[in-house]
Sequence to fold (168 residues):
Amino acid sequence: MKNIVLTGFMGAGKSSVGRKLAERLGMSVVDTDELIERSAGMRIFEIFSRYGEQHFRELEKKAVAEASKLESYVIITGGGVVLREENVKNLRKNGIIIYLHAKPDVIYSRIKHETHRPLLQVKEPTKKIKELLEFRAPYYANNDFMVDTSDLTVEQVVEEIVKKIKKP
Fold:
């Protein structure tokens, strides 16, 4: 079976959905952020603060290349993975790309208590979320299908994905 690749903004539900989806389909799961943290020996927010976003994106590119070689995995990606065409090409080689979308206010309500989100350490996080979503919209559009997670439970999102991937 092809890999199932989850893309989308932070707080869209990629990690929660990815783990439940893998369990439901009897697949293994890999999170590219976890691969990055393991190889760097530090947390994502530490990489951002110490070395900057550009360095993080280089590590992300390597993690995506590694994850793309796997088979029958649910691959959970970081929110900005789609910003590099090379990442999308690698993930698409053996994967179905699913974009998990959520409305900005829903995203903020889901992640507002998380202090380790480097891109949201700003005065107006909701405004920043809207800006980033608008900027990334054309990149997120490069998917096989989209599920809006805003008003759905994790289980409902999983069911939606299962229905779509099982269609002939």
Q: What stands out?
A: The beta strands are 3-8, 28-31, 73-76, 95-101, 145-148. The CA atoms of residues 149 and 156 lie 9 Å apart. Helices lie at 14-25, 32-40, 44-51, 53-68, 85-93, 104-111, 125-140, 154-166.
